[in-house]
Amino acid sequence: MEITPDRISERRVNVYAQPPQQPVPPQYPAPQTPAPQQAAPQQSFPGQQAPQAYPQQAAQYPQPNHPAPSTATTLDKTNTFALLSIILAFIAPLAGIVFGHMGLSQIKKKGDAGRGIALTGLIISYAYFVFVAVFFFVWIGFVVTLFSSLGGLMNGYSDYGYYN
């Protein structure tokens, strides 16, 4: 059996797919305007222009307010450093901070999209470092408290026996 372009396109047709539907704006009846009446021809004199009839304007009806169609957000115009900032905020927060600041700088200069993404990467990265710093100080305090408690317990014991 020979494969031809017609047979290939037959296989790719999805019989369940609906054709894309375009939104149809509502149809309003056309305004009814009376037919313009012809004025009696006037006599023109030499050196005088003939009077011109002014076109009658159709009555203007207010147009209904339709919301503007939404535009899909794409990543092709989003700053790459901003995307790297939010990704690296979870993997390597220091790199997330660096790329976040570089992304904000580029966004400010070039006007790229992605300011919110860069700020989110920076906030997550800085929050990670604050969490690590708080955890470190709490851990150091825990260790100091542990050794001081052990020192207090060991103060009353001696290797030479029990003293009153």
TrEMBL record:
<keyword id="KW-1133">Transmembrane helix</keyword>
<feature type="region of interest" description="Disordered">
    <location>
        <begin position="1"/>
        <end position="72"/>
    </location>
</feature>
<feature type="compositionally biased region" description="Low complexity">
    <location>
        <begin position="35"/>
        <end position="63"/>
    </location>
</feature>
<dbReference type="Pfam" id="PF13828">
    <property type="entry name" value="DUF4190"/>
</dbReference>
<feature type="compositionally biased region" description="Basic and acidic residues">
    <location>
        <begin position="1"/>
        <end position="13"/>
    </location>
</feature>
<protein>
    <submittedName>
        <fullName>DUF4190 domain-containing protein</fullName>
    </submittedName>
</protein>
<feature type="domain" description="DUF4190">
    <location>
        <begin position="83"/>
        <end position="134"/>
    </location>
</feature>
<feature type="transmembrane region" description="Helical">
    <location>
        <begin position="116"/>
        <end position="147"/>
    </location>
</feature>
<keyword id="KW-0472">Membrane</keyword>
<feature type="compositionally biased region" description="Pro residues">
    <location>
        <begin position="20"/>
        <end position="34"/>
    </location>
</feature>
<dbReference type="InterPro" id="IPR025241">
    <property type="entry name" value="DUF4190"/>
</dbReference>
<keyword id="KW-0812">Transmembrane</keyword>
<feature type="transmembrane region" description="Helical">
    <location>
        <begin position="81"/>
        <end position="104"/>
    </location>
</feature>
